[in-house]
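Worked example

This section walks through a single chain of length 132. The input is the sequence exactly as stored; nothing has been trimmed or padded.
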Amino acid sequence: MDPGITFITFLGTHAIIWASNLVGNLRHWHVWLSYGPTLNRWLISPAHHQLHHSCEERHMGCNRGFELAIWDRLYGTLYVPPEYPEEFRMGLNDGSDGRWRSVWQLYWWPFQQLWASLGEARARRRHNEQAP
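Given that input, the structure is written out below as tokens.
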């Protein structure tokens, strides 16, 4: 029997799960959105997540929580974003950022790495076979 729409469902989904997914998907929004000083201590906002992808030293290892900032608070990795957009660079800060600038590079790079690894393994094997 179809229960229909009830108090705890919204669009056919449990309201808490629906709200959780909304917050989770909103986190990946490219627009700087801070939830304010109070909610930023509890929920991961798009601003938190952008700072998580920063390659600036002051942001390293921060805001690793999935939806709740409580995990970062517990582990001392919470960086509460300001209300205004903060200036910073995004990236890995390992010199590889230029490799990911096109779809072709994104898909081809793992195969290049695999080919290079196989070549190194063959070279090591040859070296070991030649060693007395």
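What to look for: The beta strands are 9-10, 13-14.
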